[in-house]
Amino acid sequence: MAIPRILVVDDDPDMRQMMTQFLRQHGTIALPASSETEVRSQIDSGRVDLVLLDVMLGDENGLEICKRLRREQSIPIIMVSALSADHQRMEGYAVGADDYIAKPFNPELLLARVKAVLSRTRRSSSLVHRRNTNSFEFNGWSFDAKSGEVLSPTKVQVALSRRETALLQVLLANPHIPLTREEIAENLNVTGESQRADEAAGRAIDVLVGRLRNKIEANPKNPQILRTERGVGYVFAVDVAVLET
Amino acid sequence: MAIPRILVVDDDPDMRQMMTQFLRQHGTIALPASSETEVRSQIDSGRVDLVLLDVMLGDENGLEICKRLRREQSIPIIMVSALSADHQRMEGYAVGADDYIAKPFNPELLLARVKAVLSRTRRSSSLVHRRNTNSFEFNGWSFDAKSGEVLSPTKVQVALSRRETALLQVLLANPHIPLTREEIAENLNVTGESQRADEAAGRAIDVLVGRLRNKIEANPKNPQILRTERGVGYVFAVDVAVLET
DNA sequence: CCTCTTATGTAACAGAATGCAACAAAATCG
DNA sequence: CGATTTTGTTGCATTCTGTTACATAAGAGG
User: Fold this and answer.
1) Could you say which of B129, B158, B180 is where a domain stops?
2) CATH number of the domain where residue A200 is located
3) Interchain proximity B126–A126, CB inside 8 Å
4) Which nucleotides on chain C have any atom < 7 A from a protein Cβ?
5) Which of its termini does chain B have fewer beta carbons within 10 Å around, N or C?
6) DSSP three-state, residue B161
7) Which of B100, B129, B158 is the last residue of a domain?
8) Please, what is the angle between helix B36-44 and helix B62-72, to 10°?
9) Cβ of B210 < 7 Å from strand C?
C-alpha cells in the first residue's frame, strides 16, 4: 500500500497538533479533524485509511460517531481517550473500535498500534481497500452500489426493488455480523431521518428478508447467504469482496 | 458465524486453564497449548482463528514464535505478557502482534480485544482470504461449516436445525474429548451475547443430543459417534478430518 | 441375583419465533 | 387519473427448542 493516511479526530487543538505532527514525522499522512461532519467528508472523499478518534469531543460523542461509522463503513478505528477504566475501554470495543488507547500515551506506542491495525487490514485484504466502495462480490454474485445493478453468478441481471437494494447494502456492510431487526430497520432509511420509533415492530423486515431471499438464494427454503439467527435477527453469512472502481 | 477458535498458549497451567475456561464461557472454542510444536500442529490443522500467545514460555520465547509465525502465516496473534513497559509492548507489536495485553488483565477486556481483532479480520476479508477450515469428515459423513450442509455416507443431504448444527460444530472441534453438558451449553451460544447462567440446568442438552443422534447415527439406540460418557457428558468418539477448501 | 438409586433416553407438549401467502395501502409511472 | 409496482400488515402454518414426565439403563451394595 501507499503511505497510510490517518485521520486524527480531536477537539483539543494542541493534542491534534501533537498527534498529527508526530505521525507525519513517522512516515504517515495525518489529516486533522474535529467534528463528525469533517470526519465524514474526509472518509467519503476516500482518502482515509484509519481513524484516530477521541472519545470526548466537546458536544459530540466519539463513541456514537464510532458506532455510526462502523455501521456504514469498514474503516479501521482506534479510539483515544482519557477515560481509561476497564468498563470505558470495553465500551469502546463494544461500539466497534479496533483498539482503545488511554491518554496520556506514549507516541511511539500509538504508532506501533496504528501499524498493527493497518497491517492486519492489509494482510487480510490483499488488494482491496474500501474507499469509495461501490462494487461488491459475494458467492459469485456481484452488486454495483452506484447503479444498484445485481448480477447473478450466471451474469443474469436481477431486479431488486429499492427496499431490497437497501437491505442488501446494509448486509454487505456488515458481513458475518448478526443484525437485529431494529438495527436493520434503522439502517434501511439511508437518507431520511428517523421514522416511527416502533420501526420494525411489525414483521416488515421478515417479509423483506424473505423477498430478497427469493431473488438471491439458490434455494430460498434453505438460505445459505442470508441466514436467520433465531432469537436475534439475520446474518449475511458469506464473505464479501469489496472492489474499487 | 462459525465459532471462533482460539489457541491459548501459556506454559502456566493455571493461567491456561483460567483463560480457556473463560473464553469457553463466552462463546468461543478455546484450545490449550504450551509449546511452539503444539501451536504449529494446531495451526496447521487449520482449526485456529486467533492465537493468544504468552511472551514468557519457559525455555521458549513468545516473541520469537510470533515473529516466525507471522512470516509464514497471516493468523491473528494477540500477545499476553507480564512485561508491560512501553518498550516491551512495542517489541510485541514490532514482531507482528495484532495486540498486546499486559498481565494481569481483566478477562472481559481480553474478550473485547479478542473480538475486536477477529471482527477486524473478518471485516476486511475478501473472498480470496476466506477461512480455510470449513469442511469436516467423520465416519463417512461430511459437514460443510460454510453452508451448514450435512451429507450422509450415501451422499444424502440431511437437514439439521440451527441448534443441532451448532452442537455438531462444537463436537467436531473437540473430537475424543468428553464434554460436560455445561461446556456444551456454553459453547452453543455463538452469537448471542449474554445467556442465562443456569444454562443446561435442565435437560435441554440431553434432548438436543438425542435429536442429533436421530439424524446422524446409523442406529440411534446404539450410538457409535456421539457417545454418552456416563456421569460426565458426551463425547464425539470418532476421528475427524478437517478439509481445506 | 436382586433392589435401590441415580443418570440418561425420549415422547409429548407448549411457547415462541419465523416463513409466507394474501390482502391492502402507498408509491411510481405514463 | 388508471395501471403497475412496491411495501407494509395480518393471520395462519411451520419450525424450533426447552420442559416435563415417565421409561430404561447402569451401577452400587448387599
Assistant:
1) B129
2) 1.10.10.10
3) yes
4) 7-12, 17-22
5) C
6) coil
7) B129
8) 20
9) yes
Q: Is residue A20 part of a domain?
A: yes
Compute the distance between CA of residue A182 and CA of residue A169 in angstroms, rounded to an integer: 16
CB pairs under 8 A between A and B: 108
d(CA A150, CA B107): 44
**Does residue A9 lie within any of the structural domains?**
yes
The Cα–Cα gap between B14 and B33 comes to 12
The gap between B234 CA and D26 C1' (Å) is 16
Q: Do both B117 and B62 map to the same domain? A: yes
Listed by range, residues with Cβ under 7 angstroms from strand D are: A 159, 161-164, 202-204, 207-208, 211, 230; B 159, 161-164, 201-204, 207-208, 211, 230
Q: Within this chain, do residues A11 and A113 fall inside the same structural domain, yes or no?
A: yes
- B42/B59 Cα distance (integer angstroms): 20
3-state helix, strand, coil in chain B (%, to 5): 40, 20, 40
Cα separation, B151 vs B156, whole angstroms: 5
In tens, the pLDDT along B127-139 reads 333 344 568 899 9
Tell me: the pLDDT tens digits for B81-128?
999 999 999 999 999 999 999 989 999 899 999 988 887 766 544 333
Q: Which helix (H) or strand (E) holds A215?
A: helix A204-216
What's the ipTM? 0.56
Q: Which amino acid is at B159?
A: A
- Domains identified in chain B, total number: 2
Q: Is the pTM of this model over 0.80?
A: no
The answer as to whether A130 is a domain residue is no
Task: Tell whether B233 and B145 lie within a shared domain.
Answer: yes
One domain, residues B101 and B13:
yes
